Fold this protein.
Amino acid sequence: MVGVVAALALLGCGSKTGLFAPDAEAPFDASIDGPLDAFVPPDRFVPPDAFVPPDVCVELPPMEPPRSVDVSFVSRVLSAEVYFLVDVTGSMGEEIGEIRARLRDTIIPGIAGQIPDVRFSVARYADFPVDPYGSDGRTSGMPADDLYRLEQRSTTDIDAVQRALDRLERQGGGDLPEATVEALWVTATSDAPMRLVPARSCPAGTVGYPCFEREGSRIFLLFTDAPTHNGPGGSDRYAPVLGFRNHTYEETVMELRTIGAKVLGLYSGDGTDIGLPQLQNLARDTGAVRPDGTPIVFDIGTNGASLGSDVVEAVRTLVEEVPIDVDALTEDWPGDAADATEFVTEIVAASADPASGATRLPDRFVDVRPGTRVTFSIMLANERFVRMEEPQVFRMIVVLRGDGVTRLSETIVDIVVPAIDGDGCDELGR
């Protein structure tokens, strides 16, 4: 299963979630009117003079039978990026008002009740400012449409999120279909025409135009009442005279899967167009589906009256019902003299509890339901390093990964080749 996002809790061996997400915030881009979290580069876990204790220490004498490190996780969403992507074309006024009104009293408390660590971001879109697709600012008497505009990058600052929603203003939109697919493309890739969308520079290690943190789920809440240009099957394609490069639905879905984004649809159209079926296709194609295969898409009414409760229900469905695929990989700790992953001979999907909660393959679990504990055995052998006067320490990271894309949790493992006198983990205080 591709494009599904989740985070898991490590049981018993100290998994690190959000390892690169410090709380400090500093100004970044005045055009976004929001704070930028201080960033720790991915190759700097801590200051170089600080010691990070391992979660697991295992002794590995030379030329002895392989040993294993077991790592267990319970499938549960602990950390997430919730991204509001809002169609602001003329007919969306009431829905925008409902999002603003329901953010603090319904949406934020409801989502926070489901996910302990959540960050929010806000963007709006309309269409290319080229007649007949959108207003060019010259002929319609309206300001030029924005293809895409990020109002608030990823943050935990709810006041900043509220201000971003308060800045949403209606635009013309031109013809009926809007630039939904192109807005999703820009979100996932940061690739957009420079004449229309400001160049976005995110810190290394973050993802997408809104600078999503590297760890955690990516939940896209897409609000629209219209179909999209360049939709599934090539519907409502832009004409070549558009003058700007644009992207197909298939290209965009591939990029959304690459960043592990799930797109949940909130539809407020009247049902006379193909907007709702398109949202359902988008949810299916990004893995936002219930266990029975139905897409997580809500019809919130033409005025958005049920918007607040439906947003919360959409996130609840994702958290409590949607299964994920889980595998594990190992990475060498940066700066070591040797690559600790050379000790790894095999990664085995050992067990699921309950067994019915996942399908176990040799090296991964598929369709892991929320609440299921999965255990991996990391098999280790030392066929290279001999004992020396002092213990030798090699460090690696075991990464839990969702659907082959999203980094969900990390466990620090120290591999110690004992000294000639037998000193090992205990003597090193590990």
